[in-house]
Amino acid sequence: MKIMMLALLPAALLTGCTPRIEVAAPEEPITINMNVKIEHEIHIKVDKDVEALLKNRSDLF
Question: What share of the chain is helix, strand, coil (3-state, %, to 5)?
Answer without folding.
Answer: 45, 0, 55
